[in-house]
Amino acid sequence: MPVIKPISDLRNYTQVLKEVDSASRVYLTRNGQGAYAIMSMEELDELDRIKAASMIVSDLRKAKARADREGWISDDEMQKIMES
Questions:
Q1: Secondary structure of residue 74 in the 3-state scheme
Q2: Residue 1: is its pLDDT beyond 80?
Q3: Strands 3-6 and 26-30
Q4: Nearest by Cα to 20 from 39, 6, 43
Q5: Which of 8, 16, 26, 31 is the least buried, fewest Cβ under 10 Å from its Cβ?
């Protein structure tokens, strides 16, 4: 269950940070609207890994589409390119 608090609760930030763990973010609101999220470093690292993996998959899809459109090269041709 998410923890939602007004940003004014940061006056006692130690208490707010105690509610953050790898399974729970703390969402901060400003004027009743979501403004910020506080999460553990463990969760941030996992989100960074997921984002990087997603970007790699996206790049691979683009490369495959381009190769399908423009043609593939053989292993021998690739070897020559890599040796240059």
A1: coil
A2: no
A3: parallel
A4: 39
A5: 31
- Residue 38: burial class (beta carbons within 10 Å; 0-12, 13-18, 19+): middle
Reading across the β-sheet that carries 3-6, which strands appear in turn? 3-6, 26-30, 33-38
What confidence tens digit (pLDDT) does each residue in 30-68 have?
999 999 999 999 999 999 999 999 999 999 999 999 999
Q: For the chain, give the percent of residues with pLDDT over 90.
A: 85
Beta strands in 7-76 (DSSP E): 26-30, 33-38
* Number of neighbouring beta carbons within 10 Å of residue 20: 17
CA 17 – CA 25 distance, rounded (Å): 10
